[in-house]
Amino acid sequence: MSRPAFHSVFADEINQYLDYKTASGFSEKSFSIILKSFDGFCSRRGIDSISFNRSDADAWAEKRGEEATTSHYARVNKVKNFLEYLNLKGYDVYLMHDVFFKATDFQPHIYTDDEIRRYFQAVDTYHSERNRMEEVQLPVLFRLLYCCGTRNNETLGIRKSDVDLENGIIKLIETKNDCERYIVLNDGMKHLMRRYADKTFYLIGDGDYIFLSHTGGRRRGRRIYDIHRMILKHAEIPFLGDGNGPRLHDWRHTFAVHSFKQMVDSGMDMYVALPILSTYLGHKTIYATERYVRLTMSLYPYIEERFSQRFSDIFGKEAAYGQTD
């Protein structure tokens, strides 16, 4: 990813800060997008010297309309880090306070066995006049979301060079929090991916995305969401409205719940199962996986009976949310 151009009075300092962060081992992408937004914010406010007062800080920290909590958290806290950098260099800047996550009572939709069957029957019979390749792509793409627990953006970011067909391993690079990781395909997914590769990989280069749009570029997440809505309708799975699901991201939640249940049913101790699941999902800490464990225990009371005390020992009654999914 090329670095965006900055135009505010902070431009030189932003570039130096990005150089410093990348030299320290951080991903430039995780900072540059937010700092580009900050750069535009400062230009619009007419800030003409390297200073940032309380009023500026309050305006930047204000939550925007439908802005997600995770986006608000990243936007405020990463600019706070930049301001701390400026402060150390002697500039007169107001230092903002951290923004913290608050636990919510939102419950993701966990697809039932019957819903899973009907959904993928609708996927496998999907027909598109807009892009005939979708009929080949979608059975693979949607099964990756469910069978491997990948996020939509991660899945759309898979390139041909990321896929190891022989061993059934895919490297995820375009990930949330820049936590690159590997996913392992089960026998069914490995067979499906090889069939998909036989039909499509000879048409693309190693650096190309494996799920291309009809124009030959990276598929847009919004289009996949729109198809998901159509699939729900064909599968006769009621849609409760934006934010209430069943959402596309709920396949990841369903994967996590089923995986945790499968591990503990096989006799694996919670202390062992939890970090495995957390790492596989790409979470930075096990606290981000806590919601899945709670959900699994609420759906399967016998698991709660076995692990409720250990769960309390690890997380306490209320988890400190440092990350959401």
Overview of the molecule:
This protein is mainly α. 52% of the residues lie in helices and 4% in strands. The strands form 2 sheets. The chain has a 3-stranded antiparallel sheet with strand order 3-4-5, with no helix packed on it. Strand 3 (163-164) and strand 4 form a beta hairpin. The two termini are 24 Å apart. 26% of the residues are buried. The model is unreliable at 317-323 (pLDDT under 50).
Largest sheet: 3 strands, antiparallel
Strand content: under 5%
Poorly predicted sequence stretches spanning 5 or more consecutive residues: 317-323
Give the termini separation.
24 Å
Key features?
325 residues; mainly alpha; three-stranded antiparallel sheet; 52% helix
Strand and helix map with partners:
Layout: H1 11-23, H2 29-44, E1 51-52, H3 54-61, H4 69-88, E2 92-93, H5 113-124, H6 134-147, H7 152-156, E3 163-164, E4 169-172, E5 181-184, H8 187-200, H9 221-234, H10 250-265, H11 270-281, H12 290-299, H13 301-315
Parallel strand pairs: 1-2
Antiparallel strand pairs: 3-4, 4-5
Helix pairs in contact: 2-4, 6-8, 10-11, 10-12, 12-13
